[in-house]
Amino acid sequence: MKQVTVILSIWVVGIVSLYAQPLSPRLANYEISATLDVPSKTISATEILTWKNHTQDTIPDLQFHLYLNAFKNRNSTFFKESGGQLRGIGLEDTDSESVWGYVEIESMKLLSLNGKESTENLTEKIQFIQPDDNNQDDKTVAQVILPEPVLPKGEVKLEIKFKSKLPKIFARTGYAADGKFFLVAQWFPKIGVYEGIGERYVPLTAPHGKWNCHQFHGNSEFFADFGVYRVAITVPKSYVVGATGVLQSETEQGDSKTLVFYQEDVHDFAWTASPLFQVFEDTYTSKGGHTIKLTFLAQPQHADQAERHFTAVKHTLEWAEDWLGVYPYSTLTIVDPVYGGEGAGGMEYPTFITAGTFWKVPLGVKTTEIVTVHEFGHQYFYGMLASNEFEEAWLDEGMNTWLEMSVMRRYYGGESGKKSAFGDKTSAMDFLGIRIGDVEQSRAGYTSPSSAKRDTIVKPAWAYHRGGYGIFSYNKPGTMMTTLENILGEDTMKLVMRTYFYRFKFKHPTTRDFIQTVNEVTGKDFTPFFTQFLYSTVAMDYGVQAITVGRSDDEEPEGVSTDSQSKERKFNSKVIFERKEEAVAPMDILIKFSDGTEFRDVWDGVARYKIYEFDKPEKVVAAYIDSENKYLLDVNRNNNALTTKPETTGFWKWAMYVMFWIQNVLLIFA
Amino acid sequence: MTNAIQSGLKRASTQWQLAALVYAINVVFALGLAIAFKDVLSDEFATRNVSSRLIEGFDFTFLSDLNYASASLSSLFEMWNWTMIGYALLSVFLSGGMIASLQRQAFSLPDFFADSARYFGRFIMLLMFFALTVLVPLLAFAIFFTIGKAHSESALSEVPVVLWTVAGIGIAAIKLAFFYLVFEVAKFEIVRENIKPFRAFIGAFKIVLKNFLVLFGITLFFLLCVGVIGLVLHGLAPKGETGASVFVLVLMQQVLVASRVFFRVATVGALLEKYQVFKAVMNEKKLAEESKSNEQLIADAMNNNAEIKPIDAEQTEQSQSEVQTPSMPGANEANAVRNPNESQP
Lengths: 670, 345
Prior knowledge:
The complex is a heterodimer of chains A (670) and B (345).
Chain A: H1 2-12, E1 28-37, E2 42-52, E3 59-65, H2 77-82, E4 85-86, E5 89-90, E6 102-113, E7 116-117, E8 126-128, E9 141-150, E10 155-165, E11 174-176, E12 181-184, E13 190-191, E14 193-195, E15 210-212, E16 227-236, E17 240-243, E18 246-253, E19 256-266, E20 271-274, E21 278-285, E22 291-298, H3 306-323, E23 331-335, E24 347-349, E25 352-354, H4 367-377, H5 394-412, H6 414-419, E26 429-431, E27 434-436, H7 438-447, H8 468-488, H9 490-504, H10 511-522, H11 527-535, E28 542-551, E29 571-579, E30 587-593, E31 598-603, E32 609-616, E33 620-625, E34 641-643, H12 649-666
Parallel strand pairs in A: 1-16, 22-23, 23-25
Antiparallel strand pairs in A: 1-2, 2-10, 3-9, 3-13, 4-5, 6-7, 6-10, 8-9, 11-12, 12-20, 14-15, 16-19, 17-20, 18-19, 21-22, 24-25, 26-27, 28-29, 29-32, 30-31, 30-33, 33-34
Helix pairs in contact in A: 3-4, 3-5, 4-5, 5-8, 7-8, 8-9, 9-10
Chain B: H1 2-14, H2 16-45, H3 51-56, H4 60-65, H5 70-104, H6 109-133, H7 135-155, H8 159-193, H9 197-236, H10 243-308, H11 313-322
Helix pairs in contact in B: 1-2, 1-10, 2-5, 2-10, 5-6, 5-10, 6-8, 7-8, 8-9, 9-10
């Protein structure tokens, strides 16, 4: 009865739209009433799902993600692929039943189909499917064959009663601190995405569209359609709750309370509850004119870091609204996970992110800012540009890494970081003499000899070789996007990204869409660039191989005075540039002469070598390839310059530092 | 303690050749390694326009791209490892000569190296004992860390584990300091008493256990002196962006290292001074105890004699004048200063 009352309350309260016009197609709309039982770590809930068939297909079935079933036992695809760990954090005490999780559909009833009301019970028709690997023990995708298909442009409405048992946090979602902290994500039966003909990679020649509903893998995230969420959450009264969307109402009943959250035009809903939170609030005025309410739910020992989190979000908002577009939502909640619940940190959900910090992190160590900037950036790359994280993880992670690098260097990298990506030496760390830029560290994650040629960027998230997901979804594409920005220049890159955002926000863009946008806006064909760096394993390494200078052996022309004073001494200078790896790109060449003059050229970079030869009174003294440091993708920048005069002052300086430290270590034994 | 510190400073000043020798050997080793490091970088990168980047400061991109020059670097690191081991052994060797010279309060190069050779084998054994004792502070740290972790889990905060870890590091450092002092004093024992390493270690353990605060205080004082000099120099140090400022920076670094060496010698001198005082006190106590014990024996013996025979007064006076008080073991040696060059059976 209590649940029915709550559901009716949802209907009555707040059917005021947040936006004048829908921002998205609103294909998957949820009304959920959920009650958290802290001792058993379970959520009992009822979900009313209204799903629209936006295609011309007649669709006979529905497919759902049941992500929590990845934590049911050791036989799930997630567990088999990940070994029971994510980002270095493993599930503990696996012999205890309480640490495992699952979602169980208790009943599924058809409420209406194609405009006709119904009371058909579909519970017995639910079956688990494994579209990716045929692992029969994996129960993260369910299929329901409908009594009648959903007609083109038709609609189906379901009532789903379910129970979610939350796992102990290690992979994004669950409980920690024995129930004093909950981060509830991917917790409800979520309908998959039906792609019609011509959408994403469904060819125009296909007879019909298909469901895009992958199993939950060790290395994959999520994919869903936009819609409206109205969620009523009942928790113990002492628990502070944060969630996606706007808080519409809060009512108390006995020892519990019910909070109703509402958000339009999002594709997921996550929430948190804990009695430990200290709540901090701030605001930001969007370029769109509306006020964004910022909330930071902090652990008590991190309360002094609220300002750092808010500042990071505001910097990102300022940059993103300039480079991409307006953030349309009116809220953002930042969650600081409890000690022991770090596995829930560093994640993104619509208008709701989890960060993660440490007690008394020095200001010179920017891990707090990096994670906050990155997770908020996902509101754009993933939140509004809702690419498929299963199949093209780089479109959100890689592009967002570029966003993170861009924000960090401009706001935390000093004047040199503002001027260029390569100039960013301090945005990640500037502490006790150790300086590292966020651009540098992201690049370094890709360029090492053991990584650079290991895999491609564009491939299903679960198909990367061991450890490749991080490098090829984050580091390499982030470096690639920064390189693209250097090549295009800031103004053109901004135009490209604004166009991409404007065209594909609240849709499901693909790699192909992005490449087409780049080509169209620049008026040039960047397909070869992307073919090399997105679809192949080639690496880039251009260098200056040699400079040779000798006396020129010119013969004196006949009939010319042999007055020795008029003879000009000439030098034959030869400069050899080389391409050491397989990636090809046009490179700017700069050659300097002894009289201060310069020679510039553009080498197409195709051949293995390019030789420049000069017969001049002036000698060549230095040669540079990619002198403006555009190609951060070049895996070895230490060979991009060559001079004829050795310079060793810098080495002496560091040798003396090394000598000093060696002397002090040796004196321990004295 | 003040007397010991003054004595240490005086010994280090008057025997400045000791500090000079240690510093010179330290510079030779370290400079060799540093030049090798510079040569590797120069061979690879002198004409690569990298030097100017390194002048500005730490360059992470240069460091990460060094992966592509790893062959020459790995042989450099191997050379460093062997050099460090060699220096450690040489330091142990030289410490024998240092301690003997400081005790003698006179420096002579031939005597210095003769003493170094004499004690080297036993000092190496001591080093091994010390290496084993490092397990104790490690265990202490592990215990503190484990307690901190448990507290953090119950407190739902990382703060306890941080605080307990810091406390654990502090306790481990004190324990390490304790065993380091035992190592030092054991060397003194070997030089003074000419005994075997294990006996020296046990003896030193007892001395340090009784007098840890004083000995630690002396060591800490000299460390603080180095610290103060370091802070002052750090405040004055140039950025090192030109050849001249790099040179000034190097000079300042060497001033610090030289002062550290000087204070190291002063520390050994001060500890030695204190050690000698402790030994004198211990010997006095030991003699006093032995003397007391002998008096008791004599008294007991006399009482026993009185019970057996009737006492004839005239005979008693006569026999008493004939009885000689046995000499107390070591009584003639109470204040003798042993010649460390004499060997004992």
